[in-house]
Amino acid sequence: MMTLSEKINSAIRTIPNFPKEGIQYKDISTLFLRPDIIQEIIDASANALKEHRVEVIAGIESRGFLLGAAIAAKMQLPFVMIRKAGKLPAETYKATYDLEYGSATIEMHIDAIRQGSRVAIIDDVLATGGTALAASELIKRAGAYPIVSSFIAELAFLNGAKKLEDIGIQCLSLVKYQ
Ligand code: AMP
Predict the structure, then answer these.
(1) C-alpha distances in angstroms, 123 versus 69, 148, 174?
(2) Is-contact 25 63, C-beta < 8 A?
(3) Does ligand 1 lie within 6 Å of residue 154's CB atom?
(4) Known catalytic residues?
(5) Which H or E run contains 111?
(6) Choosing a second label site near 178 at 20 to 30 A (CA), which of 8, 38, 86, 127?
(7) Strands 145-155 and 79-84
(8) Does pLDDT of 103 surpass 90?
(9) Hey, is 65 helix, strand or coil?
(10) How sure is the predictor about 132, in pLDDT bands with cuts at 50, 70 and 90?
(11) How far is the CA of 153 from the centre of ligand 1 (A)?
């Protein structure tokens, strides 16, 4: 019997030098062709998040939406979209963060999360942690608590988990790449 992380590892495809030289791109499109594994990921993630008494699930566009909404439905919790700049129609909080080249801005509706809620951040891959950190700022601006983050895979050598754990956000990931 394969463990869940072995199944995920065998279904994720690594594309060398995409989108640029030196990056080992973790392609989850092949993982999503396997509904049996996706179901297990949803169940395992929901179970793990239950222990943190999470009240809201926040997914980061775009790939954080794929599992985030499914986990939220399974846990019967509200799902909040954290989107790239310019996509959300109502009033938003904005956070800008540095990428390797340039910067990016993400947004969240100001009325999406009730003050004082315990929030989980969901994305597909944890790399440097910059995106999840920016998401946590939006959640704090709303007066809520980003307490845990959950990823399919973590690029452990980039130390993103430390960045998040240093500000009190636990990191859960099903596969770690060293
Ligand atoms: P981060 O550096 O943690 O802010 O990662 C930024 C975003 O890029 C995350 O939403 C990841 O989904 C994505 N990402 C970063 N590195 C990779 C990679 N090697 N393979 C696939 N996705 C990646």
Answers:
(1) 11, 12, 12
(2) no
(3) no
(4) 63, 100
(5) none
(6) 38
(7) unpaired
(8) yes
(9) helix
(10) very high
(11) 10
**What residues contact residue 65 under an 8 Å CB cut-off, 6+ apart?**
59, 81
Ligand 1 centre and the CA of 176: distance in Å? Answer: 13
Task: Provide the CA 91 distance to its chain's centre, in angstroms.
Answer: 23
Is there an atom of ligand 1 within 6 Å of 26 CB? yes
Domain regions of the chain by residue span: 52-177
What is the predicted pLDDT for the residue at 64? 98
Which whole-number Å values give the CA distances from 80 to 33, 76, 158, 172, in the listed order? Answer: 25, 13, 27, 19
CA of 159 to the centre of ligand 1 (A): 13
DSSP state of 32: G
The CATH number, out of the four listed (2.40.160.20, 3.40.50.2020, 3.90.1150.10, 3.30.590.20), of the domain defined by the range 52-177:
3.40.50.2020
Which atom belonging to ligand 1 lies closest to the Cα atom of 126? 3
Which residue owns the Cα nearest ligand 1 atom 23?
125
Residue 61 has pLDDT above 90, yes or no: yes
- Reported residue count of the chain is 178
In this structure, which residue's CA is closest to atom 12 in ligand 1? 125
Rounded Cα distance, 130 and 153, in Å: 15
